Amino acid sequence: MKNFLSVHDATTIPDLVNRARHYKASRNENRELADGKTLINLFFNPSLRTRLSTERAGYELGFQVITMDAGGGWKLEFEDGAVMNLDSAEHVKEAAGVLSQYCDVLAVRSFPGLEDRTADYEDRIINAFVKYATVPVVSLESAIRHPLQSLADCVTIAEHRQTDRPKVVLTWAPHPRKLPQAVANSFAEWMVKWDEVDLTIANPEGFDLATEFTAGARVLHNQEEAMRGADFVYAKNWSSYTDYGATAQLPDWTVSEQKMALTNDAFFMHCLPVRRNVVVTDGVLDSDRSLVLRQADNRTWAAAAVLAGLLGG
Ligand code: CP
């Protein structure tokens, strides 16, 4: 792997899943791998899981880890040829070049603005770092993808599946704020590429994801029909791709015990953070079929597999 930005950078999904499970099974035994190397995590947006699991993965492999919160007053310029006489104090060309001198792997989180679909879907910020960094770049969630989350989700499904090709349902669920499509895009993209699962996506009319991520999946606008016979139910809110950034308050789409009763005793998944009794009821989240904490744990091992892969380990 040269960079880790999407499923297209994975060697193969089964290979990366096996590597993550290897690091999970051999925790505390891999501290030589990145001895003398430095990992920089650059966050333009807040995080609990991604920040701490990636730091922990770095320590597991022996990296020195530096994390920088860049969401405050540090305004970067991303346009080539810009006349920088306004707010931006530094161009990404210099910033990425400087950061590359301080580390062996550079990881970046940058969310979309959800105003300009063309700009967001060009994934300009992460791609600018890839262009100007001289070290491997890892996405900690970009404008349109969250690949470390998706790999952790694959690991969690691999650990819990009871059939060779389980039915996985990605369902839209309500949320009071407008959220990116990144987690859902990425989850769909990984599930479609992974030939060990059968993906159905359920979302209201007007909330279809971009087909570049979903081609090959079944897309339904009836949540109950989609959930029938499911082995895994993955809930997530996303704002509209077609009416870009628009939201809808649709409480009928909350995942409840009654809807889970339609499934094949499915496991419930969510990337967290989750709004209780909006996205999903307490009863589902607190049940023994909920995998949300296992997913969060697997974020560490997914990150370890990726960081080791970038070092050739
Ligand atoms: N799932 C996830 O990415 O969580 P954070 O936003 O807390 O990193």
Q: Remind me, CATH topology of the largest domain?
A: Rossmann fold
Instruction: Compute the number of helices.
Output: 12
- Taking all Cα atoms into account, the compactness measure Rg is 19 Å
What is the terminal-to-terminal distance? Answer: 10 Å
Q: Judging by the overall fold, what is the CATH architecture of the largest domain?
A: 3-Layer(aba) Sandwich
Q: Main sheet, how many strands, which sense, barrel?
A: 5 strands, parallel
Strand order, largest beta sheet = 9-8-7-10-11
Averaged pLDDT? 97
- Low-pLDDT ranges: none
Structural class: alpha/beta
Q: Tell me the number of strands.
A: 11
Strand content: 5-15%
Provide the succession of SSEs: HEHEEEHEHHEHEHEHEHEHEHH
* CATH homology superfamily name of the largest domain: Aspartate/ornithine carbamoyltransferase
Distinct small molecules: phosphoric acid mono(formamide)ester
